[in-house]
């Protein structure tokens, strides 16, 4: 028969372990609070990816304005972010297609308003979703975003060709123009 006081006494007699090693997250926060402000430097010291360091610091409310491939679309990057926040995904084919519908609708709205920065953000969101899907092994879902991007790039190439033809004006001397500004 065991008695509780004996068990408690046995636990107390065991030597206490040294405190646990700080987590990578704790290290990142500690380095930042000690004055090291560069995400890249903290990443090198902790052996973490810069994207992880950036997200840890943002979650802790210590750093803002860091954006990369893995930054959540719910974090405002610019004035266009709110249109895409929590509306994009690539969980499966259907989710990817629904996301492309959202991106396409917004891209066309920005086009109608001749808001090139908005169109650029839509293209960036599609490229981000493509990369996230492909680098997590979701090739079918990535392909949905890739096809949309390729269609937009093809449209752009056609528009550029028309603009180029107009700029040339059929003059053979236009080909002699320098390719860069002096």
Q: Kindly state the number of beta strands.
A: 0
Q: Major beta sheet, specifics? A: none
Catalogue the unreliable spans. Answer: 170-177
Principal-axis shape:
elongated
* Average residue pLDDT: 82
Multimeric state: single chain
Order of helices and strands: HHHHHHHH
Number of helices in the DSSP assignment: 8
Amino-to-carboxy terminus distance: 95 Å
The helix/strand class is mainly alpha
Strand proportion, as a percent range, falls in under 5%
Computed over alpha carbons, the radius of gyration is 26 Å
Describe what this molecule looks like in 3D.
- By secondary structure, the chain is mainly α.
- It folds into two domains: 22-70; 81-167, no CATH class.
- Helix content is 61%, strand content 0%.
- The protein is built from eight helices and no strands.
- The chain has helices spanning 4-13, 24-33, 39-46, 50-59, 81-84, 93-112, 116-134, 139-168.
- It is elongated, with a radius of gyration of 26 Å.
- The termini are far apart.
- Mean pLDDT is 82; it is low at 170-177.
């Amino acid at each position: 028969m065991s008695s509780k006081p004996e068990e408690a006494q046995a636990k107390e007699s065991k030597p206490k372990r040294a405190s646990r090693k700080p987590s990578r997250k704790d290290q990142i926060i500690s380095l930042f609070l000690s004055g090291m402000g560069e995400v890249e430097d903290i990443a090198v010291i902790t052996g973490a990816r810069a994207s992880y360091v950036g997200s840890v610091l943002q979650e802790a409310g210590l750093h803002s304005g860091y954006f990369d491939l893995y930054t959540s679309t719910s974090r405002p990057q610019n004035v266009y972010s709110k249109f895409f926040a929590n509306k994009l995904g690539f969980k499966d084919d259907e989710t990817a297609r629904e996301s492309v519908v959202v991106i396409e609708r917004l891209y066309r709205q920005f086009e109608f308003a001749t808001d090139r920065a908005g169109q650029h953000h839509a293209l960036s969101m599609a490229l981000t979703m493509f990369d996230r899907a492909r680098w997590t092994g979701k090739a079918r879902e990535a392909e949905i975003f890739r096809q949309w991007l390729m269609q937009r790039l093809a449209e752009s190439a056609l528009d550029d060709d028309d603009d180029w033809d107009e700029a040339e004006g059929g003059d053979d001397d236009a080909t002699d123009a320098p390719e860069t500004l002096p």
